[in-house]
Specification:
Helix 1 packs antiparallel against helix 2 and helix 3 crosses helix 4. The protein is globular. The two termini are 16 Å apart. With 94 residues, it is mainly alpha-helical. Helix 5 links the parallel strand 3 and strand 4. The chain has a two-stranded parallel sheet with strand order 1-2. The chain has a two-stranded parallel sheet with strand order 3-4.
């Protein structure tokens, strides 16, 4: 499971670093196998509220939205490369 903010962030990164062919692979091969959740107003507002409450923590809005989405769907493990998911109580999948 992922959400459209992650897709946006990953698409920009892959496209700028690896080009159009890799971007196509991301969308056609990898993302085609993942459940995509669209961020609605409620989820967005919850992420923004957490971001603003964090005061100085360098966690992105995308990550705060991810944390909220995972909690709402009772997801406990995250495929992630940063400690922020662990700091929020999620188990990191290497």
């Amino acid at each position: 499971m992922t959400h459209n903010y992650v897709v946006l962030e990953a698409s920009a990164l892959v496209h700028s670093r690896l080009g159009g062919s890799a971007l196509r692979d991301l969308h056609d091969a990898l993302l085609a196998t993942v459940r995509l959740v669209w961020v609605d107003e409620s989820l967005h507002r919850a992420g923004v509220a957490a971001l603003l409450a964090a005061r100085g923590r360098r966690v992105s809005l995308v990550d705060w939205v991810s944390f909220e989405l995972m909690r709402r769907h009772r997801v406990h493990r995250a495929f992630a490369f940063d400690r922020d998911f662990g700091d929020q109580g999620f188990t990191l999948v290497p």
